[in-house]
């Protein structure tokens, strides 16, 4: 039986952040000034091991999770990630196993990930303009490296591939149409994400958000698009299609059109804390239970107790007062 929360939402998706480290310093996620050489990242012993993650994955899937997404930080900086994928592939009942990456290490790893059993992949790419992209990742990685990573994923048969672009007004919004044109007709699905007020360090301001409505209008003015039906209830991205039949494009509108009513996602941090909302201030400690001899039944009961009382709907109740007033987990910690 699927677990239902206090708003009757089932537990269906699990996002697992495998590391809080990243080889990028995207200005909207891990600004350099705050994630510098002195930043205290988690130590190895604090991280859940691959065996611990797999044990939890089995329990979560037994309680309704159908889809697992690996994320980070940058998941591909965690050593031998393909061995975790091979373990997760064996979880009975898991329908979908995917991963979100910045793409910079994909050329080296795509084949291994596919062979281990990864099905699909999402790659983040915010601009096709080198200067803009380098300014955003803030470590000087050129666009070509990520495009080559996407190509490597395609060659390895990881598909369908999705590309995520966070849009920040005055930073990369001028390049939206270029991105759309580049991926139109390739089978790769581009999704534009509204800049979100996650965490407390990224200097979020409402006037930096380009809403779905404006994004769609700006794309439509050059490349005509129309709304399409969602694939399933709770789909995060709003689907639109090109009127000329050359494929689809998506928008993730958690600011202007929140989708909390259908939110079926739980998020596991690298050190084993479960967050029931992207905007939660604190998580629920599974690592202690994994390490203190608790049985599977005891851990499952803890999961049920956490999920049953889940009442989160931050995006629907966001106001000027709630934004920034409470400490929140960072995006780079739980992976979006
Ligand atoms: N490092 C990987 C990557 O960049 O794809 C995975 C982790 S990253 C936190 C996951 C996604 O969150 C990325 O697509 C990233 O662009 C997005 N993201 C990070 N900060 C964001 C913000 N403030 N608003 C909207 N999306 C954000
Ligand atoms: Fe790293 Fe991804 Fe955050 Fe960029 S968005 S800093 S690549 S975790
Ligand atoms: Fe889900 Fe929280 Fe986002 Fe609402 S704000 S959609 S409850 S993660």
How does this structure look, described?
A twelve-stranded mixed β-sheet has the order 7-8-9-6-5-4-3-2-1-10-11-12. The protein has helices at 50-62, 81-89, 106-116, 130-137, 143-156, 176-183, 212-222, 287-291, 296-308, 314-317, 331-334, and strands at residues 13-17, 67-71, 96-101, 121-124, 161-167, 189-194, 225-227, 238-242, 248-252, 265-268, 273-275, 284-285. Helix 1 packs parallel to helix 2 (81-89), helix 1 packs across helix 9 and helix 2 runs parallel beside helix 3. The protein has a single domain (13-334), classed as TIM Barrel, CATH 3.20.20.70. It is α/β, with parallel strands linked by helices and 336 residues long. The protein is globular. The protein contains eleven helices and twelve strands. The site of S-adenosylmethionine (SAM) has 21 residues, from strand 3, strand 5 and helix 11.
Provide tags for this entry.
336 residues, binds iron/sulfur cluster, 12-stranded mixed β-sheet, alpha/beta, binds S-adenosylmethionine, TIM Barrel
Please describe the biggest sheet, giving its number of strands, its sense, and whether it closes into a barrel. 12 strands, mixed
Distance from first to last alpha carbon: 27 Å
Q: Work out the number of β strands.
A: 12
The helical percent reads 25-40%
């Amino acid at each position: 039986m699927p677990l239902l929360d206090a708003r009757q939402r089932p537990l269906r998706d699990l996002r697992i952040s495998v590391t809080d480290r990243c080889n990028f310093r995207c200005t909207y996620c891990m600004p350099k000034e705050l994630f510098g050489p002195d930043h205290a990242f988690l130590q190895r012993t604090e991280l859940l091991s691959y065996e611990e993650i797999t044990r939890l994955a089995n329990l979560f899937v037994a309680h309704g999770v159908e889809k697992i997404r690996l994320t980070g930080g940058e998941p591909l900086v965690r050593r031998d990630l393909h061995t975790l994928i091979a373990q997760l592939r064996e979880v009975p009942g898991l329908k979908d196993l995917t991963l979100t990456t910045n793409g910079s290490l994909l050329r080296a790893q795509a084949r291994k990930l596919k062979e281990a059993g990864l099905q699909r992949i999402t790659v983040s790419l915010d601009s096709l303009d080198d200067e803009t992209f380098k300014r955003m990742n803030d470590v000087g990685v050129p666009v070509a490296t990520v495009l080559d990573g996407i190509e490597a994923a395609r060659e390895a048969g990881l598909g369908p591939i999705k590309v995520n672009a966070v849009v920040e007004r005055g930073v990369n919004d001028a390049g939206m149409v270029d991105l759309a044109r580049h991926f139109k007709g390739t089978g790769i699905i581009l999704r534009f994400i509204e800049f979100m007020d996650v965490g407390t360090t990224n200097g979020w301001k409402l006037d930096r958000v380009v809403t779905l409505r404006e994004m769609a209008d700006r794309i439509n003015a050059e490349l005509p698009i129309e709304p399409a039906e969602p694939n399933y209830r709770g789909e995060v991205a709003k689907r639109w299609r090109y009127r000329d039949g050359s494929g689809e494009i998506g928008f993730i509108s958690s600011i202007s059109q929140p989708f909390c009513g259908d939110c079926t996602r739980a998020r596991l941090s690298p050190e084993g804390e479960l967050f029931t909302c992207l905007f939660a201030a604190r998580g629920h400690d599974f690592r202690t239970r994994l390490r203190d001899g608790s049985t599977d039944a005891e851990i499952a009961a803890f999961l049920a107790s956490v999920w049953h009382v889940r009442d989160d709907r931050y995006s629907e109740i966001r106001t000027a007062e709630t934004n920034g007033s409470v400490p929140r987990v960072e995006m780079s910690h739980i992976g979006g």
